[in-house]
Structure to design on (420 residues):
């Protein structure tokens, strides 16, 4: 579900034609729908209303502080993976007691920063990390609340780059070592065990992997309770997929029908870490055709957005729907074309061999489902300025991130004086 559609011959986000925003901010830009974001959060929240829970939005999916604030105002927290994300979440007004901190490579500085902020818990991914958290907490004279991230060795049946819960993946603590690890944590003076965590992957479109991973996790929770290790928070991670093309992921309600009874039985507070499902279809990347050409019978639409702006097609071969902003253009005869960016790499494409209306120089298009892992993965490769981000709410829109300036590109660079 989203609030992008043709009205009066023009592609709109809510009540605003995207072409009008393009006139003001130029192209390319990311556009997000406030109504869609809010709707997605509320649908997820409602689906799990029968269990005590906290929705910690996965900040890495879309890190803009306006988006974080929006979810914060709806009662959400944050799932962070770095000190930088912690900073963003706090600036956005997310209370520290609603922040969970995962990631395999937390530094001592980041751990210190999170302890000082008073985050809800660390999701610990290794023995050495656990010992480091204990040591840093001792230095600060505090207790660190932790959950251990357990790798349930369940196949999420998604793209290998976004599978995280198989035993060959780098994430978490292996299933076999989990009990021993908890016993060790229990003996550490500055560690307070509060929970258990798992996250098996992303863009998951079936219920079974969630249910299987949960089954294994809850068995462990029971075993821990038997040993007197009190688990109060069960954090089941994120990973619910969305429709990019023709995937049919379960609705949060369907997922809840299957797993809410299991969750309820734990008597614990349940933490969810949805990312993509909240923001993915709430955003589009708007880009303009710079040139069209035909090489050896193959059509190329060269656009002003590249793999540095939206990496997913190059990185995972992912599909993003493409729609011209003018309904007239959308009615033109169809051709097969590659939509490519200006970057000097053959991997720089937004779509390959795609059947699209015959676009012309100057036409604009919306690259759909770009709200998750879009801007947040973007880079300055080829010394391109990162694009503007815009939030639409009804008939108003706000720039929530300025397009970078040419000076931003060289900020912090220095030429040693011997090169004078
Ligand atoms: C990436 C990630 C998420 C969010 O995943 P989505 O597929 O976007 O829902 C949640 N938790 C952890 C630990 C992650 O690494």
């Amino acid at each position: 579900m989203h609030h992008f559609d043709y009205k009066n011959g023009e592609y709109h986000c809510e009540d605003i034609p995207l072409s009008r925003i393009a006139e003001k901010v130029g192209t390319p830009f990311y556009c997000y729908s406030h109504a869609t974001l809010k709707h997605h959060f509320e649908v997820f929240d409602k689906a799990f209303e029968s269990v005590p829970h906290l929705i910690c939005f996965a900040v890495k999916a879309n890190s803009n502080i306006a988006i974080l604030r929006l979810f914060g105002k709806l009662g959400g927290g944050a799932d962070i993976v770095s000190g930088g994300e912690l900073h963003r979440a706090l600036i956005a007004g997310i209370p520290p007691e609603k922040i969970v901190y995962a990631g395999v490579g937390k530094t001592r500085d980041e751990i210190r920063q999170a302890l000082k902020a008073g985050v809800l818990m660390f999701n610990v991914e290794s023995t050495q990390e656990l010992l480091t958290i204990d040591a840093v907490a001792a230095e600060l004279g505090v207790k660190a609340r932790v959950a251990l991230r357990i790798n349930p060795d369940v196949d999420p049946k998604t793209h290998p780059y976004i599978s995280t819960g198989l035993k060959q993946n780098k994430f978490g603590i292996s299933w076999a070592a989990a009990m021993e690890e908890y016993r060790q944590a229990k003996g550490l003076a500055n560690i307070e065990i509060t929970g258990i965590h798992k996250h098996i992957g992303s863009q998951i479109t079936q219920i079974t992997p969630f249910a299987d991973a949960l089954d294994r996790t809850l068995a462990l929770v029971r075993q821990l309770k038997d040993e007197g290790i009190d688990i109060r928070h069960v954090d089941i991670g994120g990973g619910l997929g969305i429709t990019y093309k023709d995937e049919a992921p379960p609705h949060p309600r369907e997922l809840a029908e299957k797993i809410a009874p299991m969750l309820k039985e734990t008597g614990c507070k349940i933490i969810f870490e949805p990312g993509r499902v909240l923001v993915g279809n709430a955003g589009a990347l708007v880009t303009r055709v710079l040139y069209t050409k035909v090489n050896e019978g193959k059509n190329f639409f060269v656009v002003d957005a590249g793999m540095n702006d939206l990496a997913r097609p190059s990185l995972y071969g992912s599909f993003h729907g493409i729609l011209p902003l003018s309904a007239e253009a959308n009615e033109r005869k169809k051709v097969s074309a590659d939509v490519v960016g200006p970057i000097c790499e053959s991997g720089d494409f937004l779509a390959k061999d795609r059947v699209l209306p015959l676009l012309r120089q100057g036409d604009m298009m919306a690259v759909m489902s770009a709200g998750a892992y879009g801007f947040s993965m973007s880079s300055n490769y080829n010394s391109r300025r990162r694009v503007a981000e815009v939030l639409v709410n009804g008939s108003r829109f706000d720039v929530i991130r300025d397009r970078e300036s040419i000076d931003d590109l060289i900020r912090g660079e220095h030429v040693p004086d011997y090169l004078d």
Observations:
- The two ends are 57 Å apart (CA to CA).
- The domain at 103-272 is CATH 3.20.20.10 (TIM Barrel).
- The first helix runs from residue 18 to 25.
